Amino acid sequence: MAKRKIVRRKSAADPPATGQGNGNHRGSKLELVQQRAPQRATEEDEDNEDGYIDDEAEEAEEDEEDELEDESDLGDYASEDDEDDHFEGLIDGAISDSESEGEAGDDATEGDDGEDDGDEETAMFGEDNEDVDQEETAEVITNSVSDDDEEDEYLSKYSAPSEAESLSSISSGEDDIRVAYHTTGADGKPRPIYHEIDPHYSSDDSDLEDTNTIGNVPLSAYDEYPHIGYDINGKRIMRPATGSALDSLLDSIEVPTGWTGLIDKESGADLKLTQEELELVKKIQLGENAGDVNPYEDTIEWFSSKTEVTPLSAAPEPKRRFVPSKHEAKRIMKIVKAIREGRIVPNKPKVGPEQDQPVYDLWADDLPEQQPHIMQIPAPKMAKPTNDESYNPPAEYLPSEEEKDAWNKTDPVDREKDYLPRKFSSLRTVPRYENFIRERFERSLDLYLAPRVRKNKLNIDPDSLLPKLPSPQDLRPFPIKCSVTYRGHKGRVRAISIDPSGLWLATGADDGTVRIWEVLTGREVWTTTLDDDEAVQSVEWNPLKGCGILAASAGERVFLCLPPIFDDETETMGQELLAAGWGYAAQPAPTDDINKEPLCKWTKPSTKLGNQGVDVVIVCRKTVKQIAWHRRGDYFTSVSPEGANMAVLVHQISKHNSQSPFRKSKGIIQRALFHPFKPMLYVATQRYVRIYDLSTQSLTKALQPGARWLSSFDIHPQGDNVVTGSYDKRVTWHDLDLSTKPYRTLRYHARAVRDVRFHTRLPLFCSASDDGHINVFHGTVYDDLLKNPLLVPLKVLKGHSVVQSLGVLKVTWHPKEAWLFSAGADGTAKLWTS
What is the dihedral of CA 114, 120, 124, 126, to 10 degrees? Predict the structure, then answer.
């Protein structure tokens, strides 16, 4: 530990040294010097034994002298050169008295006492004591003082200070500054009064936290105490907590320079950082700029703020800087319009606080008319009384007896007047007006309940909201009247079909009979009874021309008939088609199908049915509701809603074979149709219409009409549009190229829709309902895919009567003409022509 050499300055409280004083006290001062010198020598020896080296002390003294020269209070301290001169003067004037030497020797022999005094002095003075070399001290001991001033300085340096001086030296090193004034104590001696201690130091190193507060006293002196010194307020400074043995071990380990504790992935050795990398990490931790970029470089004015004599661009000012802004022009016109309409009043005079609320004269007769608001209508005024309200009206205003009776019988709401004119001889005979209170009440309601604010009403022509559709007169031909009625069935006519030639009409009814009619005359040409107990659900002619085959279903059986109404060539061709399949039916079934029960049985009819023209009977497992032929005439489908996975069966005439295209049922099937020219099968359930590709045996599309229960559907002759009918009174048009949802929903029926059909050649389709009406529509499908179909309602055909909530059950179109055939629940079939 470096030692500071500080020469204590005389205090103002010390009495001045005079000549008499020097003479009287010369002996006592010399004795005191001789006693203190061996003690100082002993203290320095003890300091050397404790580890203080003279060389270090000298270096510390030299460093401290340099520091003291820089301080402002340098005059308070003596330099080392002045001190050496001082000691040389003392040596020259030393006392050579033998008694003094003897006393000095005696004092030297008292080592214990001197050592104790040295310890006390060291602990007492701390930083303010000066370290003196052993050689200089010895020289001082062997010499005497010759000069009074030098003796006083020597005594002040080596003698024990007074109590006041000790306290002042302990409390502060600046005694002259700290002493404010002197006062006389109780003992009559002068007593210095000090200022209060200010804990704030003006020194630059006073803010450091790790400042040594105990001076040159070694810490070993406080080993037996829990504290290591005292602060400026005299409080103990407690010893800081020491670390554990592991912390001491870690502190003793020397960490190599650049060690990070990481492993280099390339070499596998310890990753060490260079000095440059360490400086870079330090900059990053301090938040400084890690690169060699100066963040305080001067700004380069790429675009000078000063107008240059030769600018970069001398282009003329653009025109837009001189053209008025359109946006500002719009805002100005808006304000001008508001001023013209009165919504904005420029330079409106300010109204005083007393004129804010206008005062109204309730009893004035003629109030000045106020300007009403632009959006307010004044209250309606009561009509002035006429001549018929007079108590003595003219005779022409008086009602007759018949008019009085008619007025009394009329409902009060429907009367033109609430009173009848009456005649009185004088005004005093006029009775009280019975409607006075009611009219006053109604007048009050008109005043405060009737809305009297202007409303901007849109004058829109209702016809302009309707789409512009062509006139029905321009869309002719279409059926408009009933030309022929076919009567003869005893029950509801459920099935109807026209042959490909358009000459013969076949119908089936609940009486179990199938009848064929001549279209033009309405004459019945052939009839047969298929089943006495079951109703005929469906009849369909084979679309192949020249064969004359008619398929009809009754109960669980399907009958293939050849009515004897055709020529021999047609009958022969039909018989060959039906008889060709018997050879395939006689062949043995494949080994895999031996244990399986056949879906249907192809049998020959009974003798009675054979004589009536029935050639083949197909027996199914469930009731057959609908039959649909393929365009080639060799296949037809039968629909049995209760058949589950065998609800749809495909039958082949040429091989007398039946097969089921589905393994599982996806709902109750209502109807099945073949595509007009593609190998596709359309199947309608209660909610969906599914389209299957027969070549790939896969589902291609599922239409969602949005109906609760579909009743029927039909396919457009071009195959890209489908129309459906449902029991919830809706007809939907589906464009397959557009979406699976309906393109258009038609709600023109009051009851359930039973059947819908497309014309095979003309752009017509119709729908039949239980309300007894048939709606005829025009439906044009364009070849341009970007153009939507045109749907126009044309005619409502009324002729069938409703029986037991059932109306028209089935409809079909003539293959060539714009004629429509319908079958109703009233037991008749009708032909509608144009």
Answer: 80
**What is the C-alpha separation between 610 and 290, in angstroms, rounded?**
110
At 190, is the secondary structure helix, strand, or coil?
strand
Q: With pLDDT > 90 as the criterion, what percentage of the chain qualifies?
A: 38
Confidence of residue 688 (pLDDT cuts 50, 70, 90): very high
Residue with tokens 């209502």: 670
Helices (H) and strands (E) in the chain, counts: 19, 35
Is it the case that residue 490 has pLDDT exceeding 60?
yes
What are the extents of the domains in the chain? 2-285, 473-833
Average pLDDT, the chain: 76
Per the listing, tokens 């004599």 go with 309
**How would you classify residue 347: left for phi > 0, otherwise alpha for psi between -120 and 50, otherwise beta?**
left
Amino acid at 359: V
Cα(355)–Cα(336) distance, integer angstroms: 29
Residues 828 and 493 sit within 8 Å (Cβ to Cβ) = yes
Three-point CA angle 744, 745, 747, nearest 5°: 145
Going from the C-alpha of 254 to that of each of 151, 248, 630, 768, the distances in angstroms are 56, 12, 101, 105
pLDDT per position as a tens digit, 305-325? 777 777 677 788 888 888 888
Coil, strand or helix at 796: strand
Q: Calculate the CA 557 to chain-centre distance.
A: 63
**Residue position matching structure tokens 């020289």:** 139
Smallest Cα–Cα separation from 615: which of 553, 680, 550, 691? 550
Mean pLDDT of 610-634: 92
Contact 827, 493 (CB under 8 A): yes
pLDDT at 173 exceeding the cut of 80: no
Q: How far apart are CA 217 and CA 203, in angstroms?
A: 22
Would you put residue 656 in left (φ > 0), alpha (ψ -120 to 50) or beta?
left
- Calculate Rg over the CA atoms of the chain: 66
What global pTM score does this model have? 0.49
Secondary structure (DSSP) of 64-121: HHHHHHHSTTGGGS--HHHHHHHHHHHHHT----HHHHHHHHHHHH-HHHHHHHHHHH
Burial 547-574 (b: 16+ CB within 10 A, else e): bbbbbbbbbbbbbbbbbebbeeebbebb
* CA pair distance 537, 507, nearest whole angstrom: 10
Question: Which H or E run includes 615?
Answer: strand 614-619
Whose structure tokens read 């004359």? Answer: 548
- The DSSP code sequence of 316-371 is PPPGGGTSPPHHHHHHHHHHHHHHHHTSS-TTPPPPPGGGSS----TT-SSPPPP-
Map 16-43 to HEC letters: CCCHHHHHHCHHHHHHHHHHHHHHHHHH
Q: Give pLDDT, residue 241.
A: 66
Closest by alpha carbon to 379, among 427, 450, 471, 435? 450
Record the tokens describing residue 290, joined without a space. 């890690």
Q: Which two tokens stand for residue 302?
A: 């790429």
Q: How many C-beta neighbours within 10 Å does residue 708 have? A: 11
Domain 473-833 has CATH 2.130.10.10: yes
